[in-house]
Every structure is written in C-alpha cells, then in structure tokens.
C-alpha cells in the first residue's frame, strides 16, 4: 500500500511530495473515452463497476499516489429534487429561485439516494493500492448550479438571492450543508481516508460576501466530518485566505494565481498542508517548461508544513497524455 | 467644468469621491439601444458623431463625473492586420499564432488608421463639462484576443505561445506596446486628460508569468505616455499587486475581489489613487443593499490617497437603469 498521501496529511516528513491530479480520470485519456463511448456521462457516474474502472485508470496508467472517486459534483443534488442533465455542461431545468423552491428540496440520504456512490467506494477500496479520495462540491458551489440552473457567466441569480432573499439562500445552504455532511461521511465510512470539498465558484464573491454568507457553512461542514482528512479547494480565492485560515481542515488546495509560499503566509504559516498548484495549461506546452515549473512548485513546497503536488484546477480535455505521464514521473523522481 | 476627477488624480482633497462607471454607455441604457438599432457595433465605434453621442449619454442621463470614450478595445488592432467582427462577441478570423503571423502585423498609426477615434475625442472635448477618459486594452489583453481569435475559456493558445515561442510572443507584445503608446498619446494630445488601460485578461496568469512576461510591457507603456493621468485596471489580479506596486501611474482600478484598504496595503500604502470597486451584480439587487455596499466602499476610500468610485467591472446588460441612477446620486450626495 502506497500511503504517501496520508503520511503528508498526518504531518510526517516524506522524501518527495505525493502527486495526484484533479480530473485525472477524464476526457483527455483514451482509456476513459473507450468506457465513456458506451454510456452517457450520468450512466457512467451511476454505474459502480464502470465508475470504479475509470477511477482506477489513472492509478494504473499514470502511477499517481491517490485515486479520486469518479463522479460529478451535482450527483448528490439530483435526488434532493432538481432535474439534472448534461449537454455536455450541466443543465438544471427546474432551477431553485424562491423560498417555495427551496422548501421542496429534501435532505440527501446517501445510502438510499445515491447507493451507487457507496458501492463504487466499496469496490475501489477492496483492491486499490493507493488512498481513495472522496469528494463533494461545497454548499455554495452546489447552490450556484441549483439557482443559476447550470454554469453561469455573471452569477446574477445566486447573488440576487443572497442579497434580496437571504432567508431562502441560507435555508438552501443549510440543506446543502447537511446533505454534504451525510454524503461525505458515507464516503468516509466506506473507506475514503481523505475527502476534498470543491468550492469552484467561491471566487465570484467579494471577501465580505464570502466571509459572511459562505464560509460559516464551510465551517459547519468541515467541523462535522469525522475520521478523515479534509482538503478544501476554493478556486480564485487567494484574497479570502485570511478568513479561510480559521478552517479546521488538514489541507487547502491552491490554484496557480498565487505562489505556494505566499499562500502559506496568508493562511497562517505552517497551519495547513497545501495542495497544488500548476496551471493545467502548462501541460499543453513542452517538457522543459513542465520540468521548470514543476521544480519551482516542488521547491516552494519544501518550505510548507506539507505539500501534495497537484494542478491548480482539473486537467483539460485534449491535454497531451504523454505530458501528464511525464509530469507524474517527474514528481515521483524528485524532479531529476 | 466639473474637475473633480482630475482633482483627485492630482492628489487634492475633495468632499466626495468622483463617480463614473465602466461601460456606462451601453446596452442597459434605452437611449444607447436607440442609437445602436440603426448601425452595427463596429459602425457605431467608427462614426464620430454617433460615438460622441453615446459617450455623452451617461453624463447627461446619470450625471457621472467623467465621460469615457465610446469604442472597443479591439478597434486599434484591426488596422494592424487582423480581421475583426462582432457576433456579438469579438471574433478574429485570422488569429496570430506564428512568427510569420506576428511579422505581418503593422504598427498602428492612429491619425491614419483610426482617424475616427481622434475625431470623436475632438468632438467631445468641445462641449463636455466633465473630463473625457481615453482608453485602450493593455498589450497582453489585446494579445490574448489576437492569438486566441476571440474570447477564450482556458487561454491555451496564448499560454502555449508564451511558453513555446517566447520570441513570437514578445515581438507581438512589443508591436502592441508601441501601437498602444501611439494610440493613447493621440487621445491625450487631442484632449483626454486621463487614460485607462484595461488588462482584462491579466488574471489568467500565474504571478511569475505576469511579472516576467507581461508587466515589463505595461511599464514601458505607462512610462512613455506624456501629459495625462494613467489608470491601470487589471482584473482578477490582486495576487499581482506586489509587482504592480512599482508601476509609474496615478491610479489602479480594483475589482470587487479585494477590499480597497487591503488593496492599498498590498500596492504600497498611499502610493496610488484607487478606483472601484462595487460588484456590478449588486446593481441587480435592491436600493438598501446598493446603499449599504456603496457606503462601505466610500468609507474604505476615505483612508486612501484618493478614491474614484466605480464598479469592479463593466455594467452588465439588463442592469436596471433606475438602480444605476440611484447609485450615482447616492455617491454624489455623500451616501446620505
């Protein structure tokens, strides 16, 4: 069993940073596309054998130090009462806009509502030789999708709800927080020693909005998870780090918009293990650049409490697989 | 003549911050739409009488303390040798990808290539009773559009050029920097006492990429402009402020992702007048929220060297006009 990821999260000294890559199972990989051709994206997420298979692929093909459950952040919100489809971007045909819309949403009961996720976790932990990372969207990011009805450019609907109807917004956030606690705890209880919370859309807010209306729910979420390390990843949120510094989790995911040492300083020196932070577009350049930038990141990582090498966001479609393999090898060889 | 904007930029003490709003002339305003219905967007930009008319509208209708030349940041790059259209987003059908593509680009000669811009400025300064702000895109933001061939989600092409073919990238940046100096100086020489440089896409980069490959050109640009105040606005770039702090300009535009006092600290306390920073989406909420948030911003502005009230990005289409009017009145009345 390769336990490097857990060692770093436990605060142990290690010889090199563990490496895994957000969206390491995905469209850039031919073996994934082969599985994907036979089923829709939602079918893939809901089929434990296939979901386990694509979760396993990057461990076998790239040799990363962790697997991350293959799923979509919107999977747990569908049974709460929204109509979800992928086109290929997520579309919610009954967006949540009013108190009535919020009231009709139910709390997720993972063993009843998303048994396939629990099943996938069980299948994976049986034979993986690396830790399995569970994950969910953060309450605010899930709320964005539910209120906007999908992705968004300017996030007018969610911000309008936050400011014009805080009661509906906070009730929605409460329901999502409780559901997310249950969802992540089910993943943990079935074998995930680490869970990552993706707050992809936190960065659309002002520091004040984030600190007052979003972070309190992240705090509740993190405080209520037991028996696992928690990684919190809020994209485009470096200006919120002074608030995030009080979060009771093991690790903060960092995007490429800030250097790791600077991020550490703003989060409270040595308080968190940091994960990141190569721009995924660097994988479209060339080996020399990949090596130079990886080296810089690994060097900055040495001054931290602990460092998990990752990208600053998910691998992009059409990323050259050979560059991804090269990067993983590089980190495993100590950037030699 | 209302000279409040210039007074603040000159470092004078004033009773209230001057207010103008990015994209204050635009689709949200019925009077603009009436002009726009008769011509295409490009025709409007190239017609001095009509461009002057829509530049004037927000001064008359909203009562803002400054006018900003109506144009598009891509207007000066078209005569350099790219085929530009709006659909309604900008599309460049011959994107710049190779050294050969860069070599065929010419340097802008504003009096010959965009005489209509000079003419619009001349028409406006004759009868405006507020300062006219000239503007251009920053070299990097213009390069993004030219290399990507329009807007982009992940900016793979421009980053690939930066890392795989720096010679082409830097030659492109040089040509854009020289062209932008000429373009802005022509606006200044014909009557703009202030110019704003929009670096809309700077925020896609890492701090290292920005500091090494982009900022040097912004420095050259700013250092070569004479006889005007320069405002530099780089969106999503709060993590670059320690580098931006050495820029020799009067004012930095700030988006809503960082508080004004925090921005001031990171830019070097009291070094710059700051402009900003209300999230344009707040104009979709309600009067009470608009007042509360405007008050907070104005209060933070009082601790600065100088403060120009503005949004943190352009006014969005469909923004309720009555809320825009309310905001401008509010700032002019000292948030009473």
From TrEMBL, chains A, B:
The keyword Cell membrane appears for this protein: no
CDD domains the UniProt entry points to: URO-D
Enzyme Commission identifier(s): 4.1.1.37
Sequence ranges assigned to domain Uroporphyrinogen decarboxylase (URO-D) in this UniProt record: 18-27, 133-149
Record's GO cellular component terms: cytosol
Gene3D superfamilies cross-referenced by the UniProt entry: 3.20.20.210
Site (Transition state stabilizer): 72
A Pfam match: URO-D
Top EC category: lyase
Keywords, sorted A to Z: Cytoplasm, Decarboxylase, Lyase, Porphyrin biosynthesis
Stretch forming the signal peptide: none
GO molecular function term, any single one: uroporphyrinogen decarboxylase activity
PANTHER family in the cross-refs: METHYLTETRAHYDROFOLATE:HOMOCYSTEINE METHYLTRANSFERASE RELATED, UROPORPHYRINOGEN DECARBOXYLASE
Protein's name in the database: Uroporphyrinogen decarboxylase
Organism from which the protein derives: Calditerrivibrio nitroreducens (strain DSM 19672 / NBRC 101217 / Yu37-1)
